[in-house]
# Entry
Amino acid sequence: MRRISPLRMPPIPQFVAEIKFHFEEHGEDRRRNFVFDETLHRRVPMRMDGVDGLNTVGMWVDSAAVFEKDEVAVVRCVVIAPELFVDVVIPGVRFELLDGGFFASGKVIERIDAGWQEAQGQ
# Structure
């Protein structure tokens, strides 16, 4: 079993989401996969229904993986500006992920109230 040091423990997630990778805005000359390396974490800009503009989301997975077009990942998420999302994030809310163009569509499948409480210092 691989141990994670306490300094690298992921935060309590605010929501769990299902992401489908499409790479629609990535040309054929660009890498068309998305990698979660051994850190099990990625941070990218996200546009979510009900929230203006782009905001950063941190995503965690259970194991390192490379996702190709049409593959699906379930990720645990924490937003960088929780005050913008706390009233919006509920199951069914949709979002898009950006990395030099929108490359994946997501849907919230579970809200985790403990993650929002942690973000508010409660």
